[in-house]
Specification:
This protein has one domain. The chain is about 5% helix and about 40% strand. The chain is built from one helix and ten strands, in the order E-E-E-E-H-E-E-E-E-E-E. The chain has one helix at about 70-80, and strands spanning about 1-5, 5-10, 20, 45-60, 80-85, 90-95, 120-125, 135-145, 150-155, 165-180. Strands 1, 2, 4, 7, 8 and 10 form a six-stranded antiparallel sheet that branches. A four-stranded antiparallel sheet has the order 3-9-5-6, with no helix packed on it. The longest helix has 12 residues, at about 70-80.
């Protein structure tokens, strides 16, 4: 049976980290990943990669010292890295992270009319929400059962630094495509 089903993995970017590798762990927590085997698909599953998406949400809650410009600057720094898809130890795809639009999620910023410290929330994402706003892999890449793979995001400098009121961003990497079960 062939089903349109993405593979996804979420991690939190800690202060001063310059790289993150995704899809290398298995988890039963579907809020983190839908990988059931670390770094590979279980036999007899295969997967055809049709898109690569990177989604983050930067939030500034209750901060009085972190400006809108700082949140947008951190978003720009996150997009300034390189995304690399590796299959069986070989680099298959390499591109700037800013090209891997998230394609979904909340967008915009919310401020109370009074801009009180308890109601201010500012967000910046990777691209406008929309299913068509993703990097299409063409031609698609097929992952065979038990074939090792991962996606690494790497930045020239740490994109996230501790700022008053800033919350470390969760980063999702999503491989859109079809799974054969």
């Amino acid at each position: 049976m062939v089903v349109k089903q993405p593979l996804y993995h979420k991690q939190t970017l800690a202060t001063a980290e310059v790289s993150k590798t995704f899809f290398t762990v298995a988890s039963t927590d579907k809020l983190v990943t839908n990988m059931t085997a670390a770094g590979q698909l279980p036999d007899p599953q295969s997967f055809v990669i049709g898109s690569l998406q990177v989604f983050w949400e930067l939030m500034n809650l209750y901060a009085t010292t972190l400006s809108d410009i700082s949140v947008l600057f951190m978003s720009k720094k996150l997009g300034a890295g390189i995304a690399t898809l590796t299959v069986n130890g070989e680099t298959i795809l390499e591109l700037p992270i800013w090209m891997c639009s998230g394609g979904g999620g909340t967008f915009g910023l919310l401020n109370s009319p009074a801009a009180t410290a308890t109601t201010t929330e500012e967000m910046a994402l990777n691209g406008m929400p929309g299913a068509a706003n993703v990097f299409a892999v063409d031609p698609p890449i097929t992952l065979a059962p038990r074939q090792s793979f991962d996606v690494t995001l790497k930045w020239p400098t740490a994109p996230f630094t501790t700022l008053t009121g800033a919350i470390a961003p969760d980063i999702w990497v999503v491989l859109g495509g079809r799974v054969t079960k």
